[in-house]
Specification:
- The longest helix has 11 residues.
- This protein is 7% helix and 62% strand.
- The protein is mostly beta strands.
- It is globular and about 45 Å long.
- The protein has a single domain, classed as Beta Barrel (Acetoacetate decarboxylase-like), CATH 2.40.400.
- The chain has two helices and 13 strands, in the order E-H-E-E-E-E-E-H-E-E-E-E-E-E-E.
């Protein structure tokens, strides 16, 4: 008997993310290893776009948990998608389902959060207690309307091939400020400052509506 919900997953949540520009030559080998061989990172002037997000999936969805993820926009045969080379969650069910359904290499972590108004402070630790990331951030400017964003993923399939999943998120968008400190498996991002930060609140997420395996 499987320990995770069937696809698609309907989730509710809050996102706080920083967008970094990292020279492609400085992407570590284990990030390249997760990018399908026929795909390439989306780059601006030789710098790959790398998003790091702290997510809390809240009541109202099929699962509730915290997540820390790294996403790299990639292009394969003129199709744009997100490849997730590193990701940690606080839910064993999410870990099992992410790996089995969509080839997302989820690991387990623990999270400590402190929120006051729009400000969020959060610390993520790996299973060995090493600090992965510390975030101090806040939404600053509200953008008008409700935003719907496609978030297709493209992942290596264990044993060969790829898994492409159609996903979407709908919520209220905000510009934000974020200050990150990275360690352990994310030390390759250490000392970098985000080029842009954003928050998404009151979000409805649908993951795995159409999946190509």
């Amino acid at each position: 008997m499987r320990s995770y919900p069937p696809e698609p997953w309907h989730l509710r949540g809050e996102f706080l993310a920083g967008i970094f520009l990292v020279p492609t030559s400085e992407l570590p080998a284990y990030v390249w290893a997760q990018i399908p061989s026929a795909a390439r990172p989306l780059a601006l002037g030789g710098r790959a776009i790398v998003a790091v997000a702290a997510v809390r999936y809240t009541p109202g969805g099929v699962l509730e948990y915290d997540e820390l993820l790294v996403a790299v926009p990639t292009i394969q045969r003129r199709r744009l998608a997100l490849t997730i080379p590193q990701i940690w969650v606080t839910s064993p069910a999410s870990r099992a389902g992410g790996r089995a359904l969509w080839g997302i290499p989820k690991e387990l972590m623990t999270t400590r959060r402190a929120a006051a108004g729009r400000r969020l402070r959060v610390r993520h630790r790996a299973e060995d207690r090493a600090v992965l990331a510390e975030l101090d951030g806040a939404a600053t400017i509200d953008l008008p309307g409700t935003w719907t964003l496609p978030l297709p993923t493209l992942q290596r399939r264990p044993g060969g091939g790829v898994i492409r999943s159609s996903n979407s998120v709908r919520g209220r968008m905000h510009l934000a400020r974020t200050a990150w400190t990275f360690g352990s498996s994310l030390s390759w991002l250490g000392g970098r400052r985000p080029a842009l930060s954003a928050a998404l609140t009151g979000a409805a997420i649908v993951f795995g509506t159409r999946v190509e395996r």
